[in-house]
Amino acid sequence: MEALQMVDRKWETDEDRMMNRLEAHRDFITWLIKKLKAEGIECDRTTGNDPNGDILYYNPEDEEKVKKIVREINSEYNSD
Fold first, then answer.
1. Which residues does 65 contact at the CB level (< 8 Å), separation at least 6?
2. Could you say which DSSP state residue 58 is in?
3. What are the Cα distances from residue 63, in Å, to 1, 10, 12, 37, 59?
4. Nearest CA to 31 among 5, 62, 59, 65?
5. 22-31, 43-52, 70-79: lowest mean pLDDT where?
6. pLDDT tens for residues 3-20?
7. Which of 16, 23, 32, 46 would be a feasible disulfide site paired with 11, CB 3.0-4.6 Å?
């Protein structure tokens, strides 16, 4: 599995830092959607800064599976 990494570096401008964070977020959501689809979960990216989140999954029965996958990712990439 390809790991996404935030690079800790000096930024020339605040905008550069913000653009990097947005690009990393975009790439992470794209990666997560591919992972969910590989698990058979039909989903798409939301638009318009949806207050309900960045990913829309269509089958309410998938909710527990989605939460489990997200917990596993958090555990793997956010452990000390």
1. 39, 41
2. S
3. 23, 39, 41, 13, 8
4. 5
5. 70-79
6. 445 556 788 999 999 999
7. 16
**Cα separation, 53 vs 63, whole angstroms:** 13
- What does the block give as tokens for 42? 């039909």
Residues 6+ apart with CB under 8 A from 47: none
Q: Is the pTM of this model over 0.70?
A: yes
> Cα(first)–Cα(last) distance of the chain, in Å?
19
Mean pLDDT value of segment 12-40: 94
Amino acid at 28: F
